[in-house]
Amino acid sequence: MKPYFLVYKKLPANAMAIFPFIILKEKRLQSDFVLVNHEKIHFRQQLELLIIPFYVLYLLNYLINLMKYKNHDQAYFHIVFEKEAYACDQNLEYLKQRRFFSWAKYL
Q: pLDDT (tens digit, 9 = 90+) per residue, 71-105?
């Protein structure tokens, strides 16, 4: 699936996937293949959870992590969806072999 790119300079991160868009802080990031792959992994997660439930689970996982770690960065990096995306984003072939609900192994 080819993503639609949007640029929003005030984005708090370099990129964010909100299906069907990848929102970038700067246009030049569109050529960062690892970053784009990371966001495409989130696309796949969103699709397999029928989009809205993904956001609910993502937020719930973040809030539980925030209570546990009492630190935004730690809470973010322990979100199961981020764990999968960071673990696999450098493998540009990952989405060709990825199984459904692969994020669940990071629970």
A: 999 999 999 999 999 999 999 999 999 999 999 99
Residues of 58-92 as b/e, b for ≥16 C-beta within 10 angstroms? Answer: beebbeebeeeeeeeeebeebbbbbbbbeebbeee
At 17 the three-state DSSP class reads strand
pTM: 0.96
Q: How far apart are the first and last CA of the chain?
A: 27
Cα 41–Cα 43–Cα 45 angle in degrees, nearest 5: 70
For residue 93, give the 3-state DSSP assignment. coil
The tokens describing 62, both together, are 């973040």
User: What phi, psi does 44 have (nearest 5°)?
Assistant: -65, -40
Degrees, nearest 5: CA angle 5-87-24: 20
Rounded alpha-carbon distances, angstroms, from residue 63 to 10, 58, 83, 86, 107: 23, 9, 16, 19, 15
CA gap 21, 69 in Å, rounded: 30
